[in-house]
Structures are given as C-alpha cells and as structure tokens.
Amino acid sequence: MKTPALLFPQTALRRSSLTAFCPLCEPLLVLRPGGLDPPRHYADLVAASMVEYLSPPAEVDPAQRKRIAELIDQWGRWSEMVRGSGVLEAMKAGLELPGEDPENLDAIRKEIREYGRRVQQQETLTPEVRADLLLHLAHLQDREAAEMQELLASAERSGKMLSRLMGQEEGDTEPAEFSSPADMNLPPLSHSLDAEHPVALRLQAWANLAGRIELPAAWLATSNAPAAQWLLERANRRLLGEDQRRSPAGASQIAWPPPSAGPQSPLAQEAARLQLPDLGYLDDRELMELRQKLHRQELLAQLRQGLANLLELLAAEPWSPQVAAEAAGRAESLSAAWSRHLAELAPAAGPPRSLSLVVFPGLDRGQVLGLMAGDEPAGLPPAADWPEAWPAGSCPMLVAW
Fold it and tell me: What is the pTM of this model?
C-alpha cells in the first residue's frame, strides 16, 4: 500500500518535512531543477523507495544555462568563503556587519537582479528560463536549511544519548529545534497577494518546474505554512467580496491553521487534522527500522489505507457538513491508532505534530497547480450557486506544522 505525497515548494528535502510525512506517506516525491548534482543526503531512503527525486529534461538554451550556472557558482563560492566565519550566521540573524562582505553580497544580488531584468526583455526568453534562475537560487537556500537541520538533528541525538548514559530523564532535555517547521518563522505574509511577493514567485517557479515533469498520482503536501496560506487566499479571492478581503495593513503574522470557513462554505479551508507523534529524533536508519517494524506487524498498510481512505473521501465527495464530520472522525481514529502503535514500537517519540488536511472545494490537482502558477481557477460557478451547481470533490492537501 502506497500513499505518495508530492512535496512543495521545496526542492531540497528537509528532515522536518521527511519525518512529518514518512513513513505514513510513501514515497515522498521531491522536484529538483535540472542540471543539479545528486542530493547529498537520504541515499538510503531513496534506495528503499521512501524518497524519490524528479527532474525535468534539459530544455534550456546552453548559453542561458551557462550564464545561470555562472551566477549560481558565484553565489555558492561566496557562501563557502564566509561559511564558518560567522558572517553568514550573522546575516541570517539580521545583524549589521562591518567590512566589505555585505557589499560583496549586495553586488552579487544586484547582478542577479540586473540579469533577471535583462533576460526578461529578451523576446526569445521562455517562462521556464526565468523560473530556472529563481529555482536554483531557492534550491541553494533549501539545501542549506536541510543541512542545518541535519546538524541540529545529529546534535540532538548525541545530547539524548549522553543524557541516558548519565541517568538523566528524557523529560529533562530540551526538544530539538528542527522538529518545528522553520518556515513558521518567516516574515509576515502580505495579504495583498502581490504577484511579486517572494511566496508567490516561489510557487510560480515550482509550478513551472512541475509543468515540465510528468507527475505521478500523488497528494500535494507541504511543511511551508506561508505557501499553504497563500494558496488558500488565492483560491478564495474570487469568492469573496472586496469588503471581505483582508488588506496588507491587517496582516500581522503567519497563523496556521487559518480560521475555518465552515463546511457550509465553498471556501478552501482545513477539513480535518491529524495529531501524529514527532519522529524528528530518528535518523535515517532508525526511521527505516521503524518502517520495517510496522510492516512486519502488518500495521503500516492499515495506517496508510486509513489515510488513503480519508483523502479519497475528500477528493470524491461534495464538500458538506456530513463529509466534514466523517473526515473529522476518521482523522481522530487514525491519529489514535498511529499514536498507540508508535507508543509500543518507538516509545521515545516526541510530542504530537499536527497535519492539516486542506480542501479546495470543486478544484482538482491541476487547478490547484494552476493557482500556484498564478492562474485563475476556470470553470467554477459563482459562490451564489453553492452547493448545487458546484463540481463534486476537492484536491486535498497535507500541511505539516
């Protein structure tokens, strides 16, 4: 029994995302820009078919690809140069830095921006090429964040082992920082839905990449709360009157999950929520061992079937109070079963993490991918025709937080 999940918009797998969805969702599909070196981590998980990377065929003009590669290489060399010097860490913390390093970084950023402006003026430039530069730069950030989470995970495991050797209770140690979605600490999300907003640009670039890959059947999944919230707001924008739309002045900070519109509404919303023990303390070998234990006891197939049944209910049935109630009941049962089995097989599991199941009433996966690309959902009736004239089903989306 497989329950594949398509991770977005990250192109480098982070441990917090891996342990949020695996082994309940498998394989975890990660899209990567073309022309990248093989991933540095998770080789064993790839070999075990728990993780799968998908890339498009090389279609970019060689000259443009070379220029993009030069900019990426320049950025990477600068990053490596300052790594370990404290400069990069200070920049991430928002500290003001002396010396010439910030000027060097500004020059690189300026060159990237100017290159983007130049290539946008070329009539032969395709959207794929414009998205390619953004994707590669974003991939560097994703990869760096993933490597940082690996370091934190390793340090946390070493700390727990030392505590056990010293006879210290498990409850006396602090939880791992990586177990919380790092994206929750991003700056406030602007509700203006500006097409140039970084979240919007990142989703557009990812959707462009997805459009160049033959995607298998899989459920959309993310641990990026700003991206999930932006998608909901984008889907609901056409259904809300001007006086109901929030303004940038009203936006304070990212709040997930968003307030529910209720099952009587056609608005995209959280339909149900799973509470699953945190597996962030497990390394790759331990995660694979847990998967094998669940498989040997014929539990994993049952749990995955429960999740698949829940997602298929939301995908097929018209959104309604009855479907909402049934989904909530199934989510509660699945959460209890998962927690009970893990208490027996992995007693050191951390406190529960939440997994929201979001619905986009009337939209299929292709239309939700279109929302990411900036398209308006086509073929939907106005909100006044809800629910009689609306298409049945929805595109479920998993959001870990």
Answer: 0.72
